[in-house]
UniProtKB/TrEMBL annotation:
<protein>
    <recommendedName>
        <fullName>Anaphase-promoting complex subunit 5 domain-containing protein</fullName>
    </recommendedName>
</protein>
<feature type="domain" description="Anaphase-promoting complex subunit 5">
    <location>
        <begin position="115"/>
        <end position="142"/>
    </location>
</feature>
<dbReference type="InterPro" id="IPR011990">
    <property type="entry name" value="TPR-like_helical_dom_sf"/>
</dbReference>
<feature type="domain" description="Anaphase-promoting complex subunit 5">
    <location>
        <begin position="154"/>
        <end position="181"/>
    </location>
</feature>
<dbReference type="Pfam" id="PF12862">
    <property type="entry name" value="ANAPC5"/>
</dbReference>
<dbReference type="InterPro" id="IPR026000">
    <property type="entry name" value="Apc5_dom"/>
</dbReference>
<feature type="domain" description="Anaphase-promoting complex subunit 5">
    <location>
        <begin position="24"/>
        <end position="58"/>
    </location>
</feature>
Length: 231
């Protein structure tokens, strides 16, 4: 999967396609974050932030900041991550007070910190606020990312029905965006929620669909996680 992203990145750069470069760099950074390759993820997130800043894409800039915050959270450095979230939110509101889409993403970053600090209810509240903002001001991807966070937080709180609703919303958006890796992640949440609700067949169907998508994109870690969702 890494090789595919690197090939795509070289292709976009060769064509001078900044939007394609930005999207692929972000996907690569997210992959490295999932694999706990912290230095790679941080370097790529910083590249995304600089490129997004040059393109005046506030939403993508905020996504890069959120990813950097999550790199710090891998090191259990929640205080540094929390400080960055606050500082970046204040900076962005000062520079672009009307940037609702970016604010939504930074709300999610703050929710990530709260989750790591053991405050799931507070994280859930922020993620729902982020989703409302994203629906008003965000891109389709921004809405999908926020719905994904709402689904994950509902699942963590044991709200399976609400998790299913939000995960299906995110799944539909990621399908429109053509993001198979994210679709698989949403199907894993759906499978887990069905499992907890005692709906075995629905859980297995979602898990196998997620597994097949992971096979298509070469996501080995996702393949295992998809089967574990119904273990």
């Amino acid at each position: 999967q890494e090789a595919r992203f690197l090939h795509e990145l070289a292709s976009w750069r060769g064509q001078g396609d900044k939007q394609g470069e930005l999207s692929t760099l972000m996907s690569l950074a997210e992959l490295h974050l999932d694999e706990h390759k912290k230095e790679d993820a941080l370097r790529e997130a910083e590249e995304v932030q600089k490129l997004a800043c040059d393109m005046r894409d506030r939403e993508r800039e905020a996504e890069a900041i959120r990813l950097k915050i999550n790199v710090y959270l891998l090191d259990e450095n929640s205080n540094q991550a929390e400080q960055m979230a606050k500082e970046e939110t204040e900076r962005l509101l000062k520079e672009a007070p009307g940037a609702g889409a970016a604010r939504a993403v930074l709300f999610l970053a703050e929710a990530d910190v709260l989750t790591r600090k053991g405050c799931p209810r507070e994280a859930h509240k922020l993620s729902e606020e982020a989703l409302e903002l994203a629906k008003k001001h965000g891109s389709k991807r921004g809405q999908a990312v926020a719905a994904e966070a709402v689904a994950a937080n509902n699942l963590a709180l044991g709200h399976s029905t609400r998790a299913l609703k939000a995960a299906r919303e995110a799944l539909s958006l990621y399908q429109e965006l053509g993001d198979k890796r994210k679709r698989a992640a949403m199907l894993r949440i759906i499978a887990t929620a069905h499992t907890r609700a005692g709906q075995g067949k629905e859980a297995m169907d979602s898990a196998y669909e997620a597994h097949d998508l992971c096979l298509e994109v070469g996501d080995r870690k996702g393949e295992v996680a998809s089967l574990n969702a119904v273990a």
